[in-house]
Design a protein that fits this description.
Largest sheet: none
Order of helices and strands: HHHHH
Length: 209
Amino acid sequence: MMGLLKRFKYTIEADLHEMFDKKERKNPIAMLNQYIREAEKQTEQTGKLLTRQAQLKEQLEKELKETTEMLEKRSNQLQLAQANGEEDLILFATQEVEAYKTRQVTLATSLEKADEEFISLERKFETMKHKIKDMKVRQLQLMGKENVTRAHHKMDNVLKSNDEMDFNELSSYIDNLANNIEKDYERTQLEARLAQLEKTKALEMTEQK
């Protein structure tokens, strides 16, 4: 169990920022996303191993309880056989008592060690989950930084495309367009006046006749 944890691709005690700074120039978001996926996968596997360790610990507890009960039972039977002078039963019960005592000591020692290992694994598992949370916070920070950088880049492009030279060109175009419209309007007005004069002249000639 401990050996498997040591072989994980990332180390719980590692400084994440140091690793990020080395690769951040390439593609920090993609690198971090991949790292988080791997860390979550390893954490999920560790959670399953931790669950399995808890089950094994429960089995040891069950075996210890059964052994203790059988030891008590055989001890009482030994006393009963001794009281009745049953030599063959005394021999059998004595052997049983010794066997259960040995098993009880072995199980108790194994259970104590299993408890210690389980607590150690549980603490590391919680630390792993906290590290993933820290990485996700870092992920949000980098995404925010990337978003701001892109926004500034787009705004800079817009601002650069509307520099003074372009603005002057646009102003000149608008002025020319306005002048043409005014000229067309003046021409239309003059033509209308000429047409009105022609009409008036024609009317006067008709009246003189």
